[in-house]
Amino acid sequence: MGKMDAKIKRQKGVLMPHVVNGNSLADSILEKAKGQIASFSRPPCLAIVMVGNNPASQVYVRRKEEACKKVGIKTKNIHLPSSATEGEVMEQILALNSDSSVDAILVQLPLPPHIDEERVLCQISPKKDVDGFHPENFGRAALGTGQLLPCTPKGVLHILKESKIGLAGKHAVIVGRSRIVGKPLAFLLLNEDCTVTICHSKTKNLKEVARQADILCVAVGKPRTITAEMVKEGAAVIDIGINREGEKLVGDVDFEGVKGKASIITPVPGGVGPMTVAMLIENTLLCYKLQGGK
Ligand code: NDP
Q1: Is it true that the peptide bond before 269 is cis, omega within 30 degrees of 0?
Q2: What does the alpha-carbon distance between residue 290 and residue 18 come to, in Å, rounded to a whole number?
Q3: 108 in active site
């Protein structure tokens, strides 16, 4: 760690390592979940619906299955061909909704373009909606009364809370307004009393807005969207992006350039990604309880 980093750490009283170790944070959540599941009357069951063979989705599904196995959650895989119709996907969801052996349902996104994702997500029973994407859960998350919060924003919030930087009154700038990351994250941070600004592709002067952030969260899907001159000294920088560059995975933030300015920063890989999976495990346990599981 450079001299300046150490100074930032002292000034902010940050207890977390400067470069957030998402793997170790996630491991402690998985350990806790494993302990809870050991006392359950039966193992929780997560159904994973995947349509087609998107290679990135296959990797994500494998990671989720591995985490489930580690903690003692059963998985039920429904793999449909990319030619499956929307009606066929809906049928599967309805069957899983009424299957009492299934506690939680995850539909791996993206779905093939001929299937309306919104309609499919609305079909999942809100109490089995492990990703928190159903409008009922989304609405509750916005109101601050939700239990099933979307996994990635929930993981980001967990990282920020663990970092002890304090959220109330902080200016959080979120770059990206997607349904699964940017928008719900804005609500979660607003409900933590942050002052929230949301940026998107039509935002003018992204640099000027980003520079005002005490907390800068980036979910765009383009490498180096955020460079050092766009970051205020001492800001907490949360990089949610996952981009493939050749053999390497990189985020949306120019990590090497920004890390000297940030009070905390999440690496890619090894930052928000593992926390998303850990939150999926937490949400599966919540779904189990919502099904009446003891
Ligand atoms: P989307 O493509 O759905 O949304 C991207 C957002 O970025 C949009 O709101 C878009 O604006 C905005 N945007 C695009 N270009 C710019 C720009 N130049 N300046 C400012 N805003 C811009 O992506 P997702 O939210 O689904 O994912 C974002 C990234 O996060 C991806 O890399 C994805 O892989 C990753 N991700 C990581 C997860 C994890 O677990 N770590 C989980 C989910 C996603 P507009 O709305 O105007 O089009």
Answers
A1: yes
A2: 37
A3: yes
CA-to-CA distance for 267 and 277, rounded, in angstroms? 16
Q: What is the pTM of this model?
A: 0.94
Tokens of 183: 């928008």
Do 121 and 162 reside in the same domain of the chain? no
In a domain, 1, yes or no: no
What is the domain extent for residue 205?
A: 150-273
Count of domains for the chain: 2
Q: In this predicted model, what pLDDT tens digit does every residue of 96-118 receive, in sequence order?
A: 999 999 999 999 999 999 999 99
One domain for residues 101 and 47? yes
Q: Which amino acid is at 56?
A: A
Cα 114 to middle of ligand 1, angstroms: 21
Q: Residue 281 CB: number of other CB atoms within 10 A?
A: 26
Neighbours of 60 (CB within 10 A): 19
- Cβ–Cβ < 8 Å for 228, 207: no
Q: Which of 9, 108, 183, 254 is catalytic?
A: 108
Quote the tokens at residue 104: 């939680």
